[in-house]
Amino acid sequence: MFLSNSLRYHLRNRVINLGCWPGLIKEYQSWLPVSDETPIITLKEGGTPLIPAPNIEEYIGRGVTIYLKFDGLNPTGSFKDRGMTMAISKAKEIGSRAIICASTGNTSASAAAYACRAGMKAFVLIPDGYVAQGKLAQALLYGAEILSIQGNFDEALRIVRKTAESYPVTLVNSLNPYRLQGQKTAAFEVIEALGKAPDWLCIPMGNAGNISAYWMGFKEYYKAGYANSTPRMMGFQSSGSAPLVIGATVENPNTIATAIRIGRPVNRDKAIKVKKDSNGIFSTVTDKEIIKAYQILASREGVFCEPASAVSVAGLLKYRNEIPDCAVIVCVLTGHGLKDPSCAIGNNTATFHTGIKPDIKSITKLMGL
Ligand code: AN7
């Protein structure tokens, strides 16, 4: 069948619009370590939108363009799905029957969903009392076996690493190299959507897997000639949990952004190299600045992300005076706001009238009519 290039392009877009996005492994097969023998375990992750942020743009001014890469719109509500489709597919390929991970929440939700899809057992270790409710609800419903420990994420990770070394379970934390391979596709999508690389990429850092994966993706497209530059990688952490900024392990990390309550990042060396190679900046934002950005995103841009994700925008706002005129900036929003409903309920300035008599007069009076 003959198709003109423009028709081929049109149809391709139609297919995506009709919901036939094949998932990121099929979409980017030639860029990923998969073969025809790899069973592809997918929930159609990836292909997330780059959403303009006109109000933040206007606030910063000087012709700056801001986009939000909303990876909270993945199947389990976070960017982890990009890595998990790869990690679980590769585990399935070698005949693994069980996977294990430590998690601050999102990895456990994603691992549980993809393991279920692959017919594998999922064991997840989480820090007792520090996982947001939405994430816990997901892991429970997807059918994972949850082991909640009296310790933090770093202690949980130490245990799962040792367990995976000695028992027949596959580790799916970001130490698993397939995770970062899957996650690098987010950078491909950013370049495809912009037609070029952004000037800055602002991103939250916990274990620093995602910043390392993005950088890998940006470099690969640059080398392929799909972009003629690479961005400065701007990595941010919460000030109570900032080992990569202070340059030392944090024994008792603490932050409202429980997703990144991590004191001993496993991808530390990779992240330091990313910072150097990209001429990037690593810096902290306070919990107060995180909540401020979280509220601005929801109430000014209509984008509801979880607190850890708002770290990228909090960092952007902190560095707003250093943004070059007319720069194009992408802030990565790693997880959906519904992941952590109690944070939203406890941190808003909404008008919320309660206990109102159910009659029109009482209602219209409160409405100021
Ligand atoms: C929303 O789920 O580590 O720097 O165990 O959930 O790649 O670690 C989550 C991390 C940012 C940090 N935003 O990414 C876990 C976990 C959200 C996150 C990060 C996480 P990395």
Automatic annotation (TrEMBL):
What organism is the protein native to? Paulinella chromatophora
* Record protein name field: Threonine synthase
Give the family from UniProt: Belongs to the threonine synthase family.
Biological process according to GO: isoleucine biosynthetic process; L-serine catabolic process; L-threonine catabolic process; threonine biosynthetic process
List the EC numbers from the record.
4.2.3.1
Instruction: Please give the coiled-coil regions recorded for this protein.
Output: none
Q: In which pathway does it act?
A: Amino-acid biosynthesis; L-threonine biosynthesis; L-threonine from L-aspartate: step 5/5
Q: Give GO terms: molecular function aspect only.
A: L-serine ammonia-lyase activity; pyridoxal phosphate binding; threonine deaminase activity; threonine synthase activity
- Using the record's annotations, give every residue carrying the modification N6-(pyridoxal phosphate)lysine: K80
Q: Which cofactor does it need?
A: pyridoxal 5'-phosphate
The UniProt record lists the keyword Ligase: no
Please tell me which top-level EC class this enzyme sits in: lyase
